[in-house]
Amino acid sequence: MLHITELWKGVALASMLMLGTASAQTVLKSSDTHPDGYPTVEGVKYFGELVKERTGGRYSVEVYHSAQLGEEKDTIEQVRSGVIELNRVSMAPFNGTVKETIVPALPYIFRSEDHMHKVMDGPIGDQIKAAFEPVGLVALAFYDAGARSFYNSKRPIKKVEDMKGLKFRVIQSDIFVDMTTALGANATPMPYGEVYSSIETTVIDGAENNFPSYDTAKHYEVAKYYSMDEHTILPEVFVMNKAAFDKLTPEDQAIFRQAAKDSVAKQRELWTAKTAESRATAEKVGAEINEVDKQDFIDAMKPVYDKHIPDEVLKKLVDDVRAVQ
């Protein structure tokens, strides 16, 4: 009888261990400054769904949206140090640490969103991804962030001269500061979450961003003039802490990379729909949207290129981007 009792105990213990192994799950934290439902947030969620499905539930992703873990500058340091594993962030804040990211951040480097897709989906995109690894990150995917344009509370901008004297919030990037200065305006780098109140209290006159950000942050309430100079078509980057990625088996690494690639198509689809929806919302509430003479803006960018593309490696990368048809 003792034998049988011990046998059943052994069976029960083995069953518990098997159950524990089957239900074990590693939860990865991911940050995004944008609100729930925003295309980048939903893109990372979709990535998480694919990873969970393809690893049989061994990994899942918890997305902290709405800057719950901090603004982009803070979360970049968190993911590099391993406090969080994943992060969706603009490429501009990486300009100081990953020099290759300077090129896609240049004003008017891309002729259109289609041109940007062809560049970032090809060998040039792979080259830029590889440049993240020496700083402790694995670039998994590039997401759409549309075209960025200036908007303000003072007046429509139709030509470069209309920029003179206006104060604009820009991304915390020297390129964006120098671009704004070259156009005759004053640049104020600040976190995205401070823009609304800063325009409202006249600390700044406006900012620059895409239609979905202009809409979801309700910047149209304090800056009704949106001028479509479309100075940058800057992709966003979805990164993972390299140490965490290196701990994955080769099979799981392949799953993560493929899931990220598959999430790009989903994110782009959501982005296109959200851009149209956000522009319609802005127009409905009274925002004044106008076209501009882009050639004037393009011509003003020569000093920005001269300053930020100082070496032959980056100059070649610029030429390679421009050569993509």
From TrEMBL:
One of its GO terms (biological process) is transmembrane transport. The keyword Signal applies. The lineage of its organism: Bacteria, Pseudomonadati, Pseudomonadota, Alphaproteobacteria, Hyphomicrobiales. GO terms for cellular component: outer membrane-bounded periplasmic space. GO terms for molecular function: carbohydrate binding. It holds the Pfam family DctP. This is Tripartite ATP-independent transporter DctP family solute receptor. NCBIfam families: dctP (TIGR00787), TRAP_S1 (NF037995). Residues 1-24 form the signal peptide.
